[in-house]
């Protein structure tokens, strides 16, 4: 975890550029969603008013880099080049080591990528803060979101053991996740049947779950239970996939 924190803290210019980009896209997303609210009857959609929508946008922009929805290809690149053999020789569990590094990255991003967009939203726009007792529960939900996201990304990366080049799978995952996790629009904007179906998948646990905990929407304990269940299932599935993949490792080019 310390190594992951140090690694990402060295890219300060990338952090500033990423944060600025998140803020700019946050302004665009907020304008679009507020226009939709303005045209809706009663100025509300799916239980979201102006303050809830603004909070959803800026919290989502912060969580975007915290949980990482796409762009994580370090493991798949090492599998494709054959460098993963070195990782498998090391006296560690590759999956656990990758998870620890990802948690260190998330700790750094919580300070530099999650907090700034939330501060911008709170300073300049109507913002809805949760009650005091919700703050530790939101922290727990945010960590669970990272675990679920890691589990899904690990499976996408591990597919390279069979596909040799998983960039197509990674692209599909990135496009689909943004819609299905509640980043593009709140899942409460979806038809009821679609919301019901999506909550049987791990996608809402990445983004919509922590936002619901923050905004005090829906059942707190069902949301947390959903996140815990999928974090465990995806971790165990990743362990199974890795075990099957390393039964016979073929080094590319060798």
Describe this structure in words.
By secondary structure, the chain is an all-alpha fold. The chain has one domain. 74% of the residues lie in helices and 0% in strands. The chain has 13 helices and no strands. The protein has helices at 2-9, 12-39, 50-67, 74-81, 84-89, 94-124, 134-158, 160-163, 167-180, 192-198, 203-206, 208-215, 220-245. It is globular and about 60 Å long. The two termini are 32 Å apart.
Entry keywords:
single chain; 13 helices; 74% helix
Distance between the termini: 32 Å
- Summarize model confidence as the mean pLDDT: 91
Number of helices: 13
Total number of domains: 1
Gross morphology is globular
**What amount of the residues lies in strands?**
under 5%
Backbone structural class = mainly alpha
- Please give the radius of gyration in angstroms: 19 Å
- The quaternary state of the protein chains shown equals single chain
Main pleated sheet: none
Spans of at least 5 consecutive residues whose pLDDT stays below 50 are none
Helix content: over 70%
Strand and helix order: HHHHHHHHHHHHH
Would you count the extended β strands for me? 0
């Amino acid at each position: 975890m310390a190594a992951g924190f140090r690694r990402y803290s060295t890219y300060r210019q990338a952090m500033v550029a990423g944060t600025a980009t998140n803020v700019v896209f946050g302004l665009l997303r907020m304008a679009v969603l507020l226009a939709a609210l303005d045209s809706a009857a009663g100025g509300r959609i799916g239980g979201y008013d102006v303050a809830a929508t603004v909070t959803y946008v800026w919290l989502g922009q912060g969580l975007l880099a915290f949980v990482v929805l796409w762009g994580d290809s370090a493991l798949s690149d090492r599998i494709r080049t054959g460098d993963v053999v070195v990782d498998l020789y090391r006296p560690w569990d590759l999956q656990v080591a990758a998870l620890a590094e990802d948690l260190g990255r998330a700790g750094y991003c919580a300070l530099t990528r999650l907090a700034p967009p939330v501060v911008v939203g709170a300073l300049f726009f109507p913002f809805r803060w949760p009650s005091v007792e919700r703050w530790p529960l939101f922290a727990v939900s945010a960590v669970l979101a990272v675990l679920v996201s890691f589990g899904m990304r690990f499976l996408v990366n591990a597919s390279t053991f069979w596909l040799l080049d998983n960039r197509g799978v990674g692209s599909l995952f990135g496009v689909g996740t943004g819609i299905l996790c509640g980043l593009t629009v709140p899942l409460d904007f979806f038809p009821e049947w679609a919301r019901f179906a999506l909550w049987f998948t791990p996608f809402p646990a990445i983004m919509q779950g922590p936002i619901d905990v923050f905004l005090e929407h829906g059942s707190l304990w069902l949301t947390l239970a959903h996140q815990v269940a999928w974090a465990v299932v995806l971790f165990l599935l990743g362990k199974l996939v890795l075990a099957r993949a390393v039964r016979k490792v073929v080094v590319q080019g060798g």
